[in-house]
Amino acid sequence: MALLKAKPKPKETHPMTATTTATTDPSDLLDLAGLLTDEELALRDRVRSFVDERIRPNIAEWYEGAIFPTEIVREMGELGLLGMHLQGYGCPGRSAVEYGLAALELEAGDSGLRTFVSVQGSLAMSAIHKFGSEEQKNRYLPGMAKGEIIGCFGLTEPTAGSDPASMATTATRNADGSWTLNGAKRWIGLASIADIAVIWAATDDGIRGFLVPTDTPGFTATPIEQKLSMRASIQCDIDLENVELPAEAVLPEVTGLKGPFSCLNEARYGIMWGAMGAARDSFEVALDYAQNRLQFDKPLTAYQITQEKLVNMALEIQKGTLLAIQTGRLKDAGTLEPVQISVGKLNNCREAIAICREARTMLGGNGITLEYSPLRHANNLESVRTYEGTDEVHTLILGRHITGEQAFR
C-alpha cells in the first residue's frame, strides 16, 4: 500500500507558536504536514484555534470540577465537528482524514471533549445514518449535526463489555408490533444529557438497534461519579424498565452485531488520531518546561537523559501520526479493513499513554498539578485505551488475522 501524498504547511500554538515545518516544529520531524492538502490543513488549523480559545483556558477547571461544558456543543456544531464524516441530512460531509485531524486537535485539548464528538458523530449519528429509515435520518441527523439534539449509544452492559454477544438487555415484540425493552447499560457517554439513545438489545431475531427518546417512561440515565479519568466528560449507567416503543423505533437496516461493530470501527478510527493529539500536547508541554527549567545552572534540555526522553516521544508521535494518515487515506479510498483500524487503535493508545507518563516525569512534582496537561492526558487515556476495544481485544483481533486462529474463547 503506497502512502498517499498531498501538499504544504501550517501553524502551531501551545506552547510553540511557529509554522509547522520540520525545522520549527519539534513534534513533526518528518514534515508530515506536507502529506496534507491545503484544505486539510485549513480545517486542522480552525479546530486548533477553537481548542486554543475555548478548551485550553478552561479545561483545568472543567476537569477538576467534573464539568462537561454543554455550552460548547452548538459551537462544535457550527464548526462542523458533529457527524463531520457523514454525507447528506445536514451533515458536513468531510473526508476521513479531515475528521481524524479534528479528533487529533480536540484531544490535544482533552480526551473528554473529543469523546463527545465521537459519541455524537461516530456512534449515535453513524448508527442512524447507516441503518436508519429515511424518516429517522431526516428527523434526527440535521439537529444532531447542529448540536441541537444530543445522542448516545448504548451497547456496553455491566456484565458485557468485550463480549457484547452476551448482552442481557432484551427487546420483546408485542402483538401490535410495538416493542418493550428491559435491561441495563453501563459506561454510556452523554446519556444523562442526551435527547435520543441508540440502544442495542437482543430480540428473537437477533440483536437490533432501537431509537429511544430519553424522556420515555422507564428510561433512566445516572452519571457515574468519582471518576479518576475523563472527568470533563459524562459516562452513565442506563436502566431500562418496561420501556415501551412504537414499531418504527427499530433501526430497520441491520440485524446482528455487525451493526454496532461498524459504528465502533468509526469511533476506533477517530481514537487512533485523538490519542496522538494527547501525546503531542504532552510532548510540547514537557519540552517547553525542560527548556525553561534550570537545574545545576543549565536547562533540563541540556542533559542527555532529557534529550533521550524527548527523542523517543517525538519518534513515536511521528510513527503514530503517519499510521493515522495512511489509515485515513485508505478509508477515504474505500479500501480500509477493520483489522487495520485495530492496528491504529492498539498502537496509538499504547504509545500515547507511555508518552504522557514520560512527559509527566520531566515535570517533577509540578507534573501532578492541573497546571500542566500530561498527567490529565494520561489519566484520560486509561479510558481511551479501554473503550471501543481493550488492548487485549485488539491484540486478539490482530493475532487472529496473522495466524488464522481464533483465540477469543
From TrEMBL:
It catalyses: glutaryl-CoA + oxidized [electron-transfer flavoprotein] + 2 H(+) = (2E)-butenoyl-CoA + reduced [electron-transfer flavoprotein] + CO2. It comes from the Bacteria. GO terms for biological process: fatty acid beta-oxidation using acyl-CoA dehydrogenase; fatty-acyl-CoA biosynthetic process. Keywords: FAD, Flavoprotein, Oxidoreductase, Transit peptide. The keyword DNA damage does not apply. Residues 1-24 are annotated as: Disordered. Its EC number is 1.3.8.6. Signal peptide: none annotated. Its cofactor is FAD. The keyword Oxidoreductase applies. Residues 152-243 form the Acyl-CoA oxidase/dehydrogenase middle domain. Residues 37-148 form the Acyl-CoA dehydrogenase/oxidase N-terminal domain. Residues 261-402 form the Acyl-CoA dehydrogenase/oxidase C-terminal domain. One of its GO terms (molecular function) is flavin adenine dinucleotide binding. Gene3D superfamilies: Acyl-CoA dehydrogenase/oxidase, N-terminal domain (1.10.540.10), Butyryl-CoA Dehydrogenase, subunit A, domain 2 (2.40.110.10), Butyryl-CoA Dehydrogenase, subunit A, domain 3 (1.20.140.10). Pathway: Amino-acid metabolism; tryptophan metabolism; Amino-acid metabolism; lysine degradation. PANTHER family: GLUTARYL-COA DEHYDROGENASE, MITOCHONDRIAL. Belongs to the acyl-CoA dehydrogenase family. This is glutaryl-CoA dehydrogenase (ETF). It comes from Brevibacterium linens.
